[in-house]
Each structure stands twice: as C-alpha cells, then as structure tokens.
Design a protein that fits this description.
Shape: globular
Distance between the termini: 47 Å
CATH class of the largest domain: Alpha Beta
Radius of gyration: 23 Å
Oligomer: single chain
Largest sheet: 15 strands, mixed
Helix content: 40-55%
CATH superfamily of the largest domain: Endonuclease Chain A
Strand content: 15-25%
Number of domains: 3
Length: about 475
C-alpha cells in the first residue's frame, strides 16, 4: 500500500515538473517581450494551477488547423492580386509629406505596395449620423455589400441597418456579413440571423466561441475589425460597432460610447476589400477576390483626395506591422502628437516612444475615458500615468461617455484611425485594421474632433496623482504584473 501511495505521489510530482519544464521551454523558445515572458514564468511558478489553466486557454494556439493552413497559404494568392493592382500606376503616391515619408516607406517595404492616392475621405464622429449615411449607401448599392464587425447588437438604429441590408439582398445585391462570435453573441441568439439568411445574405459567425474548441485554438483571438465595403468603391472603417449608442451597455452607467469612423470613396477600397477577402477565406474556405479599381476621383473634388495606406493585423498578416507603424508614427512627431484610445496598456517600446517624444519637446496629449467598461484595463492603465506625467505628457480623461475612438495625429498632417487599442490584445493578437492618411486637410478635421474631446475632459494633475492612496498603488502594480497577458 505504501509503495502504491508513493508511486502515485511520484507520478504526480513527475507530471507536474514535466508540465512546468514543457511550458517553460515553450515560453523561452518563442520570441516574446521580456516582460511578457517573465509574467508567464512567474505565474507558472508562483501559482501553478492557475498558471497552467491560463496557459492552456491563452498561451499559444491561435487558429484551428484548417484556418491556420488557409492563413499560411493566403498571401500567395494575395500577392498575385497585388501585382495586378500595382499595374494601375496612376493611383499611387510618388511623394509623401516629410512627417509621413518614413511610415509610408515602412508600409511599402513590409506590404509590398505604395500609398494610394485619389481617395475622398470624410470623418464621421456621430454614430446616429454615421448609421443614417450608411443606410443610404446600402440602399443605393448596385453590386455587392461586405460587412465585418466585432459587435452587432440588435435594437434601435442597428435594426434599421439590418432592414436596409435585407432589402438590398432581396433586390439582387450580393451581401456578405461576418461577425465575431463572442462580440456578437446577442445577434446570433436573435431572429435576425434566420431572417437575413432567408433573404439571401451570407452570414458567417467568425471565430466561433465554444469551450469545446479550447483544444483547437485560443478562445480570445477575436475578429475586431469594423469594415463596410460597398460596390468595391465606398468603404467605412473605424472604431464603431453596429450598436445603437442610446441602448448599448446603458446599464453600466458609463454613458454613450463615442466613436470615430471614416467614409472613403476611392481605390483604397480595393485594398480593404483584399483584407476582407482574406478574412472570409480563413472562415469559409471560399475565395472572393475584390475587383481592381475601375475609376478614380477627379482632382477638382471639393473634399480631400488623401494619400492612404491600410494596415491589417492578425494571423496570416504581416507580423507586428501595426506595432511598428505606431512606433514609426510616434518617432516621426516633431511638434505635436495627440492620441485617443479607450484602453491604455502600451508595450514598453510604445511607452518609451511616447515619453521620449514629450522629452524632446513634442506637445504630447493622450485622451482616455474617465469612466471605463473594463476593470482590468482601467487599473492596469493607471500604473503608466506617473511615468507619462513625469515625461511631460498631458493626460486628459473624457467625462461625457466612454471614449471609444482610436486615433493618432502627428503634426496635424499624419493621421492613423481604426480599430486598434493601445493594449497587448490589439497589438499582438486580434484581427485589426488601421487607416494611415497623409493629408493636412484631413488632419485639421481630426484635430477639431480631438480638441472637442479635450474640451469635455479633465486634465490629470501630476501633483494630485502623486498623492493617491497607497493601496491603489498596490492594486495598480498587481494589474500591471498581468498587463502583458491582457
């Protein structure tokens, strides 16, 4: 009996240390940031049972085998399409502004394509107004409508968008809708799925959220893009989910979500269509390559005809591209840098870049929400405030709702807007999209919106912040320890 008992004890002990050794090897062999690797190792060694569980769910696997195989093969097809796209020489920008040149060169080197000009772009900062314009464009569509959102929450004006989409499908427009499984759980439990499919709309549940799939892929890899593509010429993208702000998460008491979207007409729509086609193929296995640009804007258009790049991230796309783009944009700043983000948990590199910009004389402002929907991110972000304030960064906390806009403005000339939060999940994990715009007219429009955010914000005082309670500093450090894993 004693031999049996000791044998079982020895086997458990052996399995435990084999598991620790195996995970340690996997952590060390994969090139992560030192802070992320140390966080994983500390959790595994200090609280092993919890650490094993977290690693099992979130440690390595990204996509299931079928999706991963498609993602790995997808760029061979995409490169063929890009070569045909590059034959349209007249749509490419030959020269960029001084502040944007480095970033556009990075995009060209890593993505194989120059900046695309002749794009008419309009900023939309009111969600109800944005959806009304979107409904009009959906109703006027002639060929196809492709949509992808992280959240589609039925109710209010979101239902009006659904009705417009159904009516377009019934008159013969090819409609595809891709929604994240976890973000749009309310939609997939609603009658809208059946109604849309009966109307001929292809509805895809992206990255299906199912605990039974935990052994196949990570559950926290999410489809976070927000894109609407109409007739391969009109495109919407930005931070807005498909949800009525008057109804969405009102029980949380944080007010309306404040978003920023861009409506674009021009050849950049074909590039964004290529990103959508890659996502669609990863989910369905079907190829839906977008058509090449058929027309460009005249130079006498009244609105901006901006030069643009589009950057996509996620499995199957150029690795670390958005992180590199953000760093490049921040280091390009000479006079002014304004950042809006709902989640401020930057990488060490981004934190140093922002602080260095302020220390070399750039007027740096970061606008974040005063009220938050994520306790984890709220507390982990606070630990960065002291270092940012000490470097001379102004931190504004928006008080009229949850500021969900994601934007960067460099010297009122170079703009980045899209779906990317300044946190680890957006930078390294999710399917995201960022629009890069080199245009002074557009920059001034974005500046006006950002200044309106600042007007409705509270400036964080460095002296007041340094006097905060000791227990809050302890809580901040605890969440900071977990921040590389968020």
């Amino acid at each position: 009996m004693d031999i049996f008992y000791y044998s079982i004890k020895f086997l458990i002990f052996l399995l435990y240390w084999l598991s620790v050794a195996n995970i340690t090897f996997r952590i060390l062999i994969k090139r992560r940031s030192i802070s992320a690797s140390m966080s994983w190792l500390l959790i595994i060694y200090i609280i092993p049972l919890i650490g094993f569980s977290i690693w099992f769910f979130f440690g390595e696997l990204y996509l299931c085998k079928r999706q991963k195989k498609i993602a790995n093969q997808i760029w061979s097809i995409s490169n063929q399409w890009l070569n045909k796209f590059k034959e349209h020489n007249h749509i490419f920008q030959e020269k960029n502004s001084e502040v944007a040149t480095t970033l556009f060169q990075l995009c060209k080197h890593r993505q194989g394509i120059s900046g695309v000009k002749s794009n008419k772009i309009k900023l939309l900062s009111n969600t109800h107004h944005t959806m009304k314009i979107l409904i009009r464009d959906i109703s006027l569509a002639r060929k196809n409508i492709e949509m992808v959102f992280y959240i589609w929450k039925p109710g209010g004006i979101a239902d009006d968008v659904a009705i417009a989409l159904i009516q377009s499908a019934k008159r013969g427009i090819k409609c595809r809708l891709m929604l994240d499984s976890a973000g749009s759980i309310a939609f997939f439990r609603s009658p809208w799925v059946k109604i849309m499919r009966q109307a001929g709309i292809q509805v895809v549940e992206s990255l299906k959220f199912n605990l039974l799939r935990v052994c196949l892929r990570r559950l926290d890899v999410r489809q976070h893009r927000k894109i609407v593509l109409i007739d391969n010429y009109i495109v919407y993208s930005g931070s807005m989910n498909l949800a009525d702000p008057l109804l969405f998460k009102q029980s949380s008491g944080i007010g309306q979500w404040i978003d920023l979207m861009a409506r674009i007409e021009g050849p950049i729509a074909s590039m964004i269509g290529m990103i959508y086609s890659c996502d669609w193929e990863i989910e369905t296995g079907d190829k839906i390559l977008p058509s090449l640009p058929e027309k460009t804007l005249n130079n006498n258009q009244s609105d901006t005809t901006a030069a643009m790049q589009v950057i996509a991230s996620g499995p199957g796309f150029p690795k670390n591209m958005i992180h590199q783009a953000l760093l490049t944009a921040i280091y390009s700043a000479r006079k002014e840098l304004i950042i809006t983000t709902p989640y401020l948990v930057p990488s060490e590199d981004l934190l140093y870049a922002i602080c260095a910009a302020a220390q070399r004389g750039v007027n740096v402002s970061i606008i974040i929400p005063l009220y938050h929907d994520s306790i984890l991110v709220k507390w982990s972000s606070r630990v960065f405030f002291a270092e940012l304030l000490e470097a001379g960064v102004k931190i504004y906390r928006f008080k009229k709702g949850l500021l969900h806009s994601k934007s960067i403005l460099v010297d009122q000339q170079l703009s980045l807007i899209g779906t990317v939060n300044l946190d680890m999940r957006s930078l390294w994990l999710n399917f995201e999209i960022t629009l890069v715009i080199d245009d002074q007219y557009f920059g001034k429009k974005l500046l006006g919106i950002q200044q309106d955010y600042i007007t409705n914000s509270i400036l964080l005082d460095e002296k007041v912040w340094s006097m905060r309670a000791y227990w809050t500093r302890v809580v901040e450090k605890i969440f900071y320890f977990l921040s590389p894993l968020l």
